[in-house]
Design a protein that fits this description.
This protein has helices at about 40-55, 80-90, 105-110, 125-130, 150-160, 185-195, 205-210, 210-225, 250-265, and strands spanning about 20, 25, 30-35, 60, 95-100, 115-120, 140, 165-170, 200-205, 230-235, 270. With about 290 residues, the chain is α/β, with parallel strands linked by helices. Helix 1 runs parallel beside helix 2. Bound molecules: phosphoenolpyruvate and manganese (II) ion. Manganese (II) ion binds near residues 207, 243 and 244.
Length: about 290
């Protein structure tokens, strides 16, 4: 019997579709999530949300609880950030994904966001994984910094074994001897995962490379390797970003990536969302 009883893909069987709000991950559509590493202000998240969704992002990302390496780095806006992300999701009619750091935070995050992200640093936080088993929302599970594929799959197995079948795996680069890139994006893992598990697989070329100029080529390579979607960091002014500016695309760079994916994906038998033509501009009430 497979070590991964629940995530294992029996031969010739299809993949699982995970629904985040009204968006299906793992079907024919290649799904792109985009937004800032961290929610910094109301203006920042609302502006980014309007621009990335206009370019074809189907999910909005933004960190409210940030797992920073240094305790002196910006830790995120916490509950206020969650509120702002929810507002931006509603304003753009786009489901949201945000990280949950602790089991105690799950109720608030699950109440406010459409999908719960487990960060690389928490991939083997077994108390968190077990607690996510009873969450009512889907989970985007990122691969640990130095995790094997087996450890990654067993982390997903924890969530599913504890009652939540809606897991999307996310390859986000691993630590290797190489230091020219922030991490080594393991696209071989993507092709392998698509063979051995029925779960959908996302790729994060932002953390996977740490370098803005490498994000678009690795995003296209991820699509070619069989990924079901991407999660991309976008900031209206990356030089001023409080977190991960060097790997964040500007909104026009993101729009350029989306248009190149639109050219590429049909050759791979997938579709990707068209740029959104809004009947009215997204406007946000001022104040608050
Ligand atoms: C993030 O998505 O901003 C993040 C912290 O990612 P990771 O956990 O993959 O480092
Ligand atoms: Mn980040």
């Amino acid at each position: 019997m497979s070590t991964y009883k629940l995530v294992h893909r029996p031969e010739n069987s299809g993949g699982t579709i995970v629904r985040v709000g009204n968006v299906e991950i793992g079907g024919g559509e290649f799904v792109v999530a985009a937004g800032p590493c961290a929610i910094e202000s109301r203006e920042q998240i609302l502006e980014t949300a309007a621009l990335v969704t206009a370019a074809g992002a189907r999910l909005l990302r933004g960190g409210a609880f940030k797992p920073r390496t240094s305790p002196y780095s910006f830790q995120g806006l916490g509950l206020k950030g969650l509120e702002l992300l929810e507002e931006a999701g509603v304003a753009t009619d786009t489901p949201t994904v945000t990280e949950v750091l602790t089991p105690e935070d799950i109720p608030a995050v699950a109440q406010s966001a459409d999908a719960l992200q487990v960060g690389a640093r928490n991939m083997q936080n077994f108390a968190l994984l077990k607690a996510l088993g009873s969450a009512e929302k889907p989970v985007l599970l990122k691969r640990g910094l130095s995790s094997t594929i087996e450890e990654f799959l067993l982390a997903a197995e924890y969530i599913i074994a504890h009652g939540n079948p809606n897991v999307v795996l996310c390859e986000r680069g691993i630590r290797t001897f190489e230091t020219a890139t922030r991490n080594t994006l393991d696209l071989g893992a993507v092709a392998l995962l698509k063979n051995i598990t029925h779960l959908p697989v996302f790729v994060d070329p932002s953390h996977g490379t740490g370098r803005r100029e490498l994000v678009a080529p690795m995003a296209r390579a991820a699509a070619a390797a069989g990924a079901d979607g991407l999660i991309i960091e976008v900031h209206p002014n990356p030089d001023q970003a409080l977190c991960d500016g060097p790997q964040s695309l500007t909104p026009p760079q993101f729009a350029g990536l989306m248009s190149s994916l639109r050219a590429l994906l049909p050759a791979l038998g997938r579709t990707v969302a068209a740029p959104q033509k809004r009947s009215r501009p997204v406007t946000f009430a001022t104040g608050a």
